[in-house]
Design goal:
By secondary structure, this protein is an alpha+beta fold. The chain has eight helices and eight strands; from the N terminus they run ββααβαββααβαααββ. The strands form three sheets. A four-stranded antiparallel β-sheet has the order 2-3-6-4. Strands 1-5 form a two-stranded parallel sheet. A hairpin with a 5-residue loop joins strand 7 and strand 8. The radius of gyration is 22 Å and the shape is elongated. It starts with a strand and ends in a 5-residue tail after the last strand. It binds flavin-adenine dinucleotide (FAD).
């Protein structure tokens, strides 16, 4: 029985680890994480201002960095997030974000999708009639996939390597799977790249599923490293869905 996701599942799986060099001590002030200190250290190196002449807390310092558009120092801090419960159509849009991003996604050629899960489009969630239509089509598609894999395995019986044979069958059969098929993807990006993607995808113009995901990623990263993301504000838009706006555009 396939599972139907109505929201993404996010897990932060990697964050920066900063080792402050003893020969260039910084006068740190205020709360901060390794990622934020790493960016502050990199920024201060540019002017050799480790003595912190303006007596800024780390997060005030980073606020000024964003205001000045000196965003390259944010590129030192990388965060990796495992995304699950997202659709293939979402990841198709997500992977368009290239600069500063790395992706590793579940392969539909290698992985058996006979028991794949699916993501309900936000506009369909809570509407029984639409849900019924959607669900029927998804189930028909999955049954067709299972049938095609079985048939293709027969047709390719001459292929000796079973792993290769399965791959050949699955890569053809997946053509009938819908965009709503659930996928898993590890996304790594630096803080500057996350900001650019989140600005575009949490805005009101973005598609609803990726927008919902972007708002959740934003919340996660705001908790993790407020110095990089505190200028984003989540609000409920006129369409009654959450969106986010930013103070410092494309630092
Ligand atoms: C609401 C919305 C609707 C969209 N609709 C469509 C659509 O209908 N069809 C479609 O194909 N795409 C669509 N897109 C995707 C969009 O065109 C971009 O591919 C996507 O947003 C990634 O943006 P980017 O290229 O700025 O990101 P990245 O590739 O991460 O680039 C980040 C920034 O780096 C710089 N940069 C990156 N590469 C280069 C380069 N080669 N040369 C110069 N500068 C570079 C640019 O400043 C760029 O903004 C849509 C996006 C959004 C948010």
């Amino acid at each position: 029985m396939a599972k139907f996701y109505t929201e993404p599942v996010l897990t932060l799986i990697s964050r920066p680890s900063f080792s402050a060099p003893e020969h260039l001590p910084v006068d740190w002030i205020g709360d901060s994480t390794d990622g934020e200190r790493l960016a502050e250290f990199a920024g201060r190196l540019c002017y050799m201002s480790q003595h912190n002449p303006a007596k800024r807390q780390t997060r005030e310092y980073l606020e000024n960095i964003k205001k000045q558009g000196h965003g390259s120092v944010l590129e030192h801090a990388n965060y990796s997030i495992l995304l699950e419960g997202v659709s293939r159509s979402l990841t198709h849009e997500l992977v368009r974000h290239r600069a500063g991003f790395a992706y590793s996604q579940l392969s539909q050629r290698y992985v058996d999708e006979s028991e794949a899960n699916f993501v309900v489009p936000p506009a369909v969630v809570g509407d029984e009639m639409l849900m019924e239509t959607w669900r029927t089509q998804v189930e028909v598609a999955q049954a067709a996939y299972v049938g095609l894999v079985a048939e293709l395995m027969e047709r390719y019986s001459w292929v000796a390597d079973k792993v290769h044979r399965r791959k050949m069958a699955r890569e053809a059969a997946r053509a009938v799977l819908p965009n709503a098929t659930e996928t898993k993807i590890v996304v790594t990006a630096n803080a500057r790249a996350w900001r650019t993607m989140l600005e575009l995808r949490s805005s009101e113009g973005a598609e609803l599923e990726i927008r919902r995901m972007a708002v959740e990623v934003l919340r996660l990263l705001q908790r993790e490293a407020p110095g990089f993301f505190s200028d984003f504000e989540v609000y409920v838009a006129a369409d009654r869905r959450e969106a986010a706006r930013i103070s410092y555009h494309k630092v």
